[in-house]
Each structure stands twice: as C-alpha cells, then as structure tokens.
Amino acid sequence: MRKIQTIQSGLRQKWTYTIRDIKGIIGLNEKTFQRARGARIVVYHGICTSNPTRFNSLFLTKKTFEQHLRFYKKYFHIVSLQDYYLQRFSNERFNICLTFDDGFANNYKYVLPLIGAYGVPATFFVTAIRDAGYEILWNDCIALAQKFGPREFEFRKELFIKNGHDAYVSLVGDRSLKEMLRGEGFTTKADVMKKLERWLPASVKNRVTDFWMQMTLSQIQELSRSRFATIGCHSYYHNDLARHRLEEVKTELIHSKQFLENAIQKEVDALAFPYGSYSRETVSVAKSLGFAKLLAVEFLFPEDQFDAAMLERFIVNPYISVNNQMLATVHGKYCS
Question: Within this chain, do residues 266 and 119 fall inside the same structural domain, yes or no?
C-alpha cells in the first residue's frame, strides 16, 4: 500500500512540474515572477560540466547554473549576505541571496568567473579540511567509493555491502555508512577514508575531480579577493556539529575560523552549519566565538525565528527545470 502511495505521489509531482513548465513555455508564469516579492537565501554546492547527480543530489551543471544567473538578473534583485542581514531589499522585485557550501574547487573554477561576468555577489562557506592535510571531505570520499569501490568491505569487524542504491549499508541494523559516520569523530572518519582510498587511485579520482576536490589555500585566497565573493565558515572537518561534544565543537569552530581568517586576512563572521544540523549549545558557542551570521537549512527550534543571527536557506534541486526551480524558490517549497 505504501509503495502504491509513493508511486502516486511521484506521478502527481511529475504532472505538476510538467504543467508548470508548459505554462512557462507559453509565458503564463511571467506575471508570477514579475509580481513576486519577499526574499530567499538559496544554497548551492558543487558545479560540474555534466552528469551532476552521478555521485549525489547536490550538484548542478555549469550550464544550468548560468541559466539561473540569467533568470535572477532578469526578474530578481540579487543581494549580498551582508545586505540580506541588513534587509537592504528591493520593494519592487523578489530578493535573492546566493550561497555555496563545502568549498569545492569547482566553485573557484566555474562559479568565480560567472559571478564576475554577471556582477552577482555570492557567499562561499568553506571547510578548513586543507589545513588538516586533506583534499577531500569524508562524505565525498565515501560517495566515490560507493561508485568505484568493491561490492563489500569490512571495517572494524563490521561488514558493509552496497544496497540497491549503491550505498554502503551495514548488515548490523541496516545502518548506512554515511549516517553511521556522521556521529563519529574525525579520527574514525579518517580511518574509513584510509581504508577506502585503496580503491580510489589517482587514475580513478583524476577523472572526476570536479565532484570531490576541495579548494586549495591559494584558490581560497584568490576567491576572497573578488569584490563579488565573501568567505564564510563551514566547520573544520565537515562534521555534524550537533552530534559532537561541545568541547569538540568549540575547538573545530575556533580552528576553522582561524584558518580562514589567516588565509584571507579578513574577518569571517558567517557560519553555515554542515548538513543544516545544530543544537542550542552549538548556536551559543558559535556566537561566543564571533559568528554573527548563522545559516541553517530550516529552523530546528521555534525560537530560532526570533534570533537575528539565524537565517534559513533553500537548497537548489538538480532534478527539475530552471522554470520549476524559480517557482519553488519564490514559493519557498517544492512540489510534494
């Protein structure tokens, strides 16, 4: 019964998106965009040249992203994160703020030239993983291994096997490897990465660098020098901050802030929580360290809506058309 309901829901969603695209083609959505008012922060992650959903559901192609930029310039008022916090909005257009998470080198390679060409401000939330001696985030290492690695592998006497979605799942409690590691410290994550790296030689990784490579120190510095780019913090190891002890969270935020500020010689006062995950204590620690701008995906506590430091963001969907993405951005929700 549940499977039938899921299929029916998927068909309704597909039909709704199709109708909206037809309306877009014949110009019936034009007034919606022209009359739209309000503001939204959107969050992108990686940009690639093709096959954006090969490893995850967070990438867009460069072509699609540029179509987004053209759309924003035509219909919306684009503001920096600083202006968003100061509410320097247009009353005649829908206001949009662009942010990028994770610090991928593809942001430097593809996004930096485009925001310069279109004159569009954007904030890039970067991890400090380069300072720890790594060029890849732990979750991206797992994503590569799930495509190129063996059908099964053992870690600490626990067997992980690829399921029907090419995700490593433990035979004990049907736990996914990614979900299990989110609650672990980086030492355990590093041990798993070391185990998986044997199946990820340079000959394999170099074919797909856009999907995992982190920005180098020099790229972060050059990005920061652009008048259209602002650098924000995205933690040190890309850990789930809500699942770690407060002392560890504090240390991670201190070190990541120091790394970025030393690199770009500017204050870094914005923090985007990895995975959108945080606790009340995480917020308090972040504020005490000088983070005046705290970005979530959605508020996890009722009182967050009254906190001037906290803002929600809207994640871009790579599976729908530009027209449907823009409608969803204006409305603040996707079809369900």
Answer: yes
